[in-house]
Write the structure tokens for this entry.
Amino acid sequence: MSESIVELKNISKAYGSNTVLENINLSIRKNEFLTLLGPSGCGKTTTLRIIGGFETPDEGNLLFEGKKINTLPPYKRKVNTVFQKYALFPHLTVAQNIAFGLKIKKVNQSTIDEKVKAMLQLVNLAGYEDRDITSLSGGQQQRVAIARALVNEPEVLLLDEPLGALDSKLRKGMQIELKNMQQRLGITFIFVTHDQEEALTMSDTVVVMNEGIIQQVGTPTDIYNEPINRFVATFIGESNIVDATMIKDYLVHFADYDFNCVDFGFGENQPVDVVIRPEDIKLVPEGEGMIQGEVKSVVFKGVHYEMQIQAKDHVWLVHSTLMEPAGSRVGLQILPNDIHIMAKEVDG
């Protein structure tokens, strides 16, 4: 990927005594699909609003192509925003809604017509020019909102939970459409969501936030397979997290067993946390695995079975396409590549 287009340097923001963002540093590259992911109140929407010009940081600098734009008004930024509620004009047709920004800029009508037609093609709404906004479905209205933002040819498109109002099936379809659209246009998308699956499906880069602080930045694969702390491990998917002791490089002790692993650099005989994803635990006959336990519950999830295995004082969550009934005794096998070591977090 190419160089940075947006940079946040030591950005902080508070509302009264409530600190919303604390010393945020982030570099967003040209042509990148970047997602700000986190629970409600984590600061992701405030970050987006600062980039869009709707909020001003209390501290730090916002750079666009290397130039400071902290106080530049939204209409002067090469950025457009798609909001969760779309903010379409119900008294205007589809074409008039898309053309609104161009009208404000006093673009000539023939150019407007040409650009609106191109946008309708892009968002798969060709032939909808004269439709009333109120006659459209939620997914169609969302496409109009995206077209209205893109027709102004922004270098960065900001999307504030734009799929939140859609049902599950339509939401999944729009995830793919948005990603394909971003790749065809070759512009930067900055997307806000609290939905982990959405972030992992669409993004080149995921920024996990909590309580106004960036917890981890990485590819979806890195974020899922190599979480940096307990918050990321539990927020992104499901995890088994256990207390452990790093005996030495590539060897860790937990569940009364010494496991080979692929991690190093944690010192010797040091307390650590171990993360193991439920799908990475293999069920084997009792006596064959490193851990022995009893199946306490079984739930069919459609693609896999979710089982809880009681092994001494710990309950392991296991996802498998093979089912062992409740009450049966099983072994659990865990391979070195599926053991992820994290530094032990210190309370306070």
In short: The chain has a mean pLDDT of 90. The first helix runs from residue 44 to 52.
